[in-house]
Design brief:
Layout lengths: L7 E4 L3 H6 L6 E2 L5 H4 L11 E5 L3 H12 L5 E6 H7 L2
Parallel strand pairs: 1-2, 1-3, 3-4
């Protein structure tokens, strides 16, 4: 994925939440693991990354983690409902 300008969507909810309801093509990494596992995606530090969860709280925490790691184009997209409804 390195060097790609397309948005990477990451669902930071638990695996159980993701299994119950998910968006096809989006990656699931919990907010607790985002700092350890983001490197597995081989993204550039300026890759557009959008994070979401159930309400937006955990994705806010994950956004702060990634920004502290030097990722520059990271945004909290809020809740999964907001992400789904934005596509309508």
């Amino acid at each position: 994925m390195s060097g790609n300008d397309s948005i990477v969507w990451i669902d930071v909810r638990t695996a159980e939440e993701n299994a119950a309801r998910s968006i096809e093509g989006h990656i699931n990494i919990t907010h607790e693991e985002i700092g350890q596992k983001i490197g597995d995606l081989n993204l550039s530090k300026d890759q557009p990354i959008r994070l979401y969860c159930r309400t937006g709280r955990r994705s806010g925490v994950a956004t702060d983690v990634l920004k502290s790691m030097g990722y520059t184009d990271v945004e909290n997209a809020g809740s999964i409902d907001a992400v789904i409804n934005a596509d309508d």
